[in-house]
Amino acid sequence: MKKAIQFKFLICTLALASTQAKVVFSGMGSSGTRSTNQSTAGTVTVSSSSQSTTIECRRDDAVSYGFMKTLLLGDTPSYTIANGKILVNLPTRVSACIKDISAEAISNPIDNNVYLKFNVKIDSSQYPAGTQSIEKEYEKCMAHLSGGDSSFYTVDKLREKGHLAPPVTLDTDLPDIDANRNSELVIASTNKDFDYKNDMPFGLANVAQHTSFSDPSFNCMDYAKPADKKVMANKTTEYELREEAIAACNGKNLTDISESLKKLRSDSGGNYDDLTRILSGIQHQLIDEEVNKMVARMEQIESDISPSVEDVKEGDKFGVSKEARKKLLQEYASHMNKFSKELLPAMKDELKHLMEEYADLGDSESDERRKDQIHESIERINDVIAKFNRQNENGAEYKKVVEALREGNMQTSGRKILSGIVLAQEFSHVKLEGTNKRNVEEAENNSERSIARLKQGTLADWGDEALIRAGDNSPIKRRQQILKGIQQRASKDRKNYMTKLNAYDDYIQQYAQDLASSYCTSGGSYEDCMTVRSTYLPYIYNQYSSWKQNSYQDYNQSYNAKYGAAYNEQKSILSRFNGLYSNYKLNAMQSQLAGASSSSPFDLWTGADNSYSSGIPGLNFDLSGASNGNFNNGGWDNSFNLMQPQQRTPSSSTWTNPYR
């Protein structure tokens, strides 16, 4: 696997690397052994397949990049290009014998690169100046200042003599370049003198190629890279995307690879099929390798926490100690969190891309083949995601993990683990067909709702249970108030509805009376009166009775859904809390009894020295709160009966429990 990934990285680098055009000339400039620091002029003949050109060369105050590095104590400048300026940041440097250092730049329209040279002026006041090259004059000046002391050239001695200058920034204008093309910063460096001494501190660089310009002061120079990493004067969108892809590819970071893939796929200005194929392949391999390691470790943790047969015989609920469980559960949570935060986002983006691509395909033979490939890819991703649905993968041992989390009130680790389970359940069903299929957006929405309920419900309950186990019954009182509130709201709701029905009854009754009286009056038609009484009024009553029955059934369904589920849920939680509190009180009593000091087991109750007729000091024998949910609080009626569901399906019964 590792060899395959390394091979992918090699292909990645080769495929992503962009080339920069260079103009390479044959011949050597005439900056020979006796060049002067004023101007060294000459010509060079450049031949190509179509023409031969004579180029004028002039050195002026330019120096080689190697000489600059000598002045910088072997270090390299850093470069910033912004706002039409080239900023050259020089680190600590030798100031002895140097009067001035400057930078100058020119652009080459052929390759659109920016070429920068360094100009140095020697301080002739510090030594008997001559007319040789800048490098030779510098060497003479330094030799004069050293006075024959070879240690003069060391950094410590130069610092001691005050010949080191602090960092400084040079700036020069950025020449005109084509903003639609890439542009690289290149150092224009003079040729080293043939007889230049090599025993100066840190030596000089040695470069070999030549680039031509129309400016004689830049002609016949070598070129050098300014730093190990390219310095770009201008980057096209394609260059930036490819550069980012190379970094993601070599960095083996799933998040970076995923982000790079999204940008490549969303950019319409270039064809990046080669990049996306390579990055996608590396992404798949990295995910598979990481998932296999993570799942294997999680399975081992599940096994370690689960009790063995011997543990069960000895009465142990878990296979390891409380302290060991905590460490294992935290590690388990870190794996699930990595799945949620690093692995899943990459797979989610891939699923979304595949489904969008599928939607754009037609019915051609090639498109049908691609559809089959997409189906296979989605299924493979679903299978990988499903491995983190530990509830399905390893249900029995996973339950012991949750039980350990709950007992230890490890809400932070529990949130990471249970959230990962929810995400795995949802996104393993993001597919194009089959039962329980959903798209990425639906899976995201479902996950958000489930995780929100998880935080407000399950994890909050763990905290309440921990309080109860410690003897704090405030969660019980809070649940009692919640139940009481549900009952009050339910009663008010039902009362309002019945009031409305009674008003309808009164309306229908009055309507019927008004209708009858309008026909059954003195002087009216007897036949019309009888028709109203025998036909119209029964019809009206039947229609209203039918509507009322349907309305009542609808209300019953809605009423039970709205209040019944909330009531039963809270009652179940309260019953569990009461059981925990009962255990706490019984354990407390047993602990106090076991710790009592007496000469006989019966002295606690009958001893002459102490009277316990009013109870044991500090021990509350009122165990009414531990009766498994059968409690009575200020007239609270536990026999609260909700209306039973009717057969008729209501027009709308969807409801989200607001009281959880």
List the helices and strands and how they pair.
Elements: H1 2-16, E1 41-47, E2 52-58, E3 62-63, H2 65-71, E4 78-82, E5 85-90, E6 93-94, E7 98-107, E8 114-122, H3 134-146, H4 155-160, E9 164-165, E10 168-173, E11 183-189, E12 210-211, E13 221-224, E14 232-234, H5 237-251, H6 254-266, H7 273-305, H8 309-313, H9 322-360, H10 365-386, H11 390-393, H12 395-407, H13 411-427, H14 440-456, H15 458-469, H16 474-519, H17 526-595, H18 603-606
Parallel strand pairs: 8-11
Antiparallel strand pairs: 1-2, 3-8, 4-5, 5-10, 6-9, 7-8, 11-13, 11-14, 12-13
Helix pairs in contact: 1-5, 1-7, 5-6, 6-7, 6-9, 7-9, 9-10, 9-13, 13-14, 14-15, 15-17, 16-17
How does this model look, in words?
With 660 residues, this protein is α+β, with helices and mostly antiparallel strands. The chain has 18 helices and 14 strands. Strands 3, 7, 8, 11, 12, 13 and 14 form a seven-stranded mixed beta sheet that branches. Strands 4-5-10 form a three-stranded antiparallel beta sheet, with no helix packed on it. Helix 13 packs antiparallel against helix 14 (440-456). The longest helix has 70 residues, at 526-595. The chain is elongated, with a radius of gyration of 43 Å. It starts with a helix and ends in a 54-residue tail after the last helix. 23% of the residues are buried. Residues 1-11, 13-40, 43-52, 193-211 and 597-660 have low confidence and may be disordered.
